[in-house]
Amino acid sequence: MGNLISAANFAKVAQYADLFKQGMAVTIMLSLLTVLFGFFLALLLAVMRLSHLCPFGFLGLTKDGHLREQGFLFHLSRFNPVSFIATVYVEVFRATPMLVQLWLVYFLLFDKSVIDLPKVTILGFIRLERFIPGVVALALNSGAYLSEIIRAGIQSIDGGQTEAARSLGLTQGQNMRYVVLPQAIKNTLPAIANEFVTIIKESAITYTIGVQDIMSAVNATKGALYIIIEPLLVATLMYFCLTFPTSKIIAYFERRMSRGDKR
Questions:
Q1: pTM of the full predicted structure?
Q2: Which CATH architecture has domain 31-57+67-213?
Q3: 8 A C-beta contact, residue 149 and residue 191
Q4: Band of residue 160 on the pLDDT scale cut at 50, 70, 90
Q5: Which of 47, 68, 174, 215 could form a Cys-Cys staple with 207, CB 3.0–4.6 A?
C-alpha cells in the first residue's frame, strides 16, 4: 500500500466517483434526520430537566403543618422523577463514547429479537436496516448535548418576561412556545450551529455498522485499490464542503436574527 500522494492514484480514485457521490448523499440525509430528531429530543429533555413535578411534595410538611428542613422525607418531597430521568439520560450519553452507543443501538436495540427492520434498499444504495440504527444512535447522542445548550438558553431568559406573559393570560405552554423558546434558541444559535456541524462529522462513524456514507466509500476504495491517502483526502474535501457552507449559512441567519437587538 503506497504512502506517496500521486495524480495517478487520484485518477484511480476518480473511477469510484459514483460511490463517493452516493456516500455524500447518505451523509447529508443522515445528518438532516439526526438534526431533526435530535433537536426535538433535546427540547423534550430540556423541558423535563426544568420541570417542577414533585409527586411527593406533600411529605415536606410535618404533621403540624411545618416545613421539614432535613431528613429522608425532606429529600423525598423534593424528588422530581421527570427531571431525574432526563438528567441520568444526559449524563450517560455525554459520558460514554459515541462508538459504544452506536454499537449498543445497532446490536442490542435493533437486534432481530427486539426490532427487526426489513432489509429494504431505497434509491438503490441506502440500506434501511443499517441507515435507521445510525440515525437513531446519532439522534440520541446529539439530543443529550443539545438539551444542555437549550436548557442554558431557557434559563438565560429573564423571569420577568414569564411573569408578564402570565399577566396577559398566557398558559405555561404558550409562554414557553411564544416567549421563552424563540429567545432561547436565538441566544444559543452559535452553540447549536456548532453541534449541527459536529453531527455531520460524527456521522462518519456509522460506516462501522455498514452505512454507505462517505467513509464507507473510502473503505471500499481502499480495499479495491490498496491506497488510502488519496481516498481520505477526497473524503476530507467532501466533509469540508458540507460543514463550511453550513457554518456560514447559520452565521448569516444569526446576523439576521440579531438585527432587532441592535436597534
A1: 0.84
A2: Orthogonal Bundle (1.10)
A3: yes
A4: confident
A5: 215
